[in-house]
Specification:
alpha/beta, Nucleotidyltransferase, domain 5, 5 strands, 20% strand
């Protein structure tokens, strides 16, 4: 990743996981800065807005877990969980599309199964993200997975398990 970027991963639901990954483009791969958070859905939009404001004018991508209506969703703790999740995804989409963010903030919406298959614990550990994310909580860990997946697949960050990334880490030591 040669250009500075902010990626905000979001695991929406009754407990929202958020993770801001920032990379200034001039530091080694091992110098990714992260801020994992867990909060309620009513607070998530504010946190995302504050992060976007704090890192302006840095280009950003919101990496949001896509709502999939299926058997797993039906086993939620409450019937309102799906409604809360879909409402938060819509709110974040409108934050991204707002006039002040429209040109600078991208949008990535992927299923949990797509992201978790690739952004496994080994890959998060290689990127130096696993321990801190999981200390905050499971939802913050899932948000970190979305942020890393998007940073690699959409923004050009090297795959933490690639030879290129290992070489960058070794040179940094």
């Amino acid at each position: 990743m040669s250009q500075p970027l902010l990626v905000i991963g979001v695991d929406p639901g009754e407990t929202v996981g958020l993770c801001a990954l920032s990379h200034l483009g001039t530091t080694p791969l091992g110098e990714i800065h992260m801020r994992p958070v867990q909060c309620g859905p009513e607070t998530a939009r504010e946190v995302v807005g504050m992060w976007l404001d704090a890192w302006a004018p840095l280009p950003a991508i919101l990496a949001v877990e896509r709502w999939v209506n299926g058997p797993r969703a039906a086993r939620s703790r409450t019937p309102a969980a799906g409604r809360v999740t879909r409402a938060l995804i819509a709110e974040l989409f409108y934050v991204q599309r707002s006039p002040e963010n429209d040109e600078r903030v991208g949008w990535a919406c992927r299923s949990a199964s797509t992201v978790k298959r690739w952004a496994n614990n080994e890959r998060l550990k290689a990127a130096g993200l696993l321990d801190h994310a999981l200390k905050v909580g499971r939802h913050a860990g899932d948000a970190t997975r979305h942020a890393l997946y998007t940073a690699v697949h959409d923004a050009g960050l090297p795959d933490p398990l690639s030879k290129h990334a290992r070489g960058q880490r070794e040179r940094a030591l």
